[in-house]
């Protein structure tokens, strides 16, 4: 198993997000340290990250990949509304992965509470039946979807009084991880195959840092973990 992640120098919604403090260390370090027992490839355009990882033996499990100018320009081009992540992942697979069937994990350091054991367990779900695994949050609650012209129910009938436990669950995509082999990725050119296993995360592990509100919430959770509440 190889693990691939991206740590960019700057972010739009939270400037310098990957380096902002969560508890007593920068956001990126939480997951990177958690994955110390695995070979971790980090694609980055951050000089300070490169220096810190190269100068600290606790990051010996990390292999640094300098982010290409093509991908930097792609993300900074306001006329392009797609992310370069899939292309970056594809380049990583072509350059660093020889075994077509080896499980490859694409993860994000914006999921600071994700556990190494969870990734290992999720990787074990790969089989002849499931060619990819993707992390999700599971919600069993009354949900509507708003379109341009209407609002409609998703998983319930408004004319029937139901218990929430009887509702069909909603799977909410989480960027904590995508797990797939090089062979399957090449076949579908996608991080999620048609026969994907949706791996449910706990509420805490599903926390992702995208906004300042997310960061505030994660800080509260972090303190709770440190104090033995969670």
- Separate helix tally: 7
Helix share of residues?
25-40%
Give the N-to-C terminal Cα separation. Answer: 30 Å
Mass-distribution shape? globular
The major beta sheet can be summarized as: 7 strands, mixed
Strand order of the largest sheet: 5-4-1-6-10-7-11
Radius of gyration: 19 Å
How would you sum up this structure, described in words?
The protein has 230 residues and is an alpha/beta fold. The chain is 29% helix and 24% strand. A hairpin with a 2-residue loop joins β2 and β3. It is globular, with a radius of gyration of 19 Å. It starts with a strand and ends with a helix. 29% of the residues are buried.
Defining key terms:
230 residues, alpha/beta, Spore Coat Polysaccharide Biosynthesis Protein SpsA, Chain A
Give a brief outline of the structure.
The chain is an alpha/beta fold and 230 residues long.
Chart the SSEs and their pairings.
Blueprint: E1 2-7, E2 21-22, E3 25-26, H1 27-34, E4 40-44, H2 47-54, E5 62-66, H3 69-76, H4 85-96, E6 103-107, H5 116-123, E7 132-139, E8 144-146, E9 151-153, E10 170-181, H6 182-188, E11 196-200, H7 212-226
Parallel strand pairs: 1-4, 1-6, 4-5, 7-11
Antiparallel strand pairs: 2-3, 6-10, 7-10, 8-9
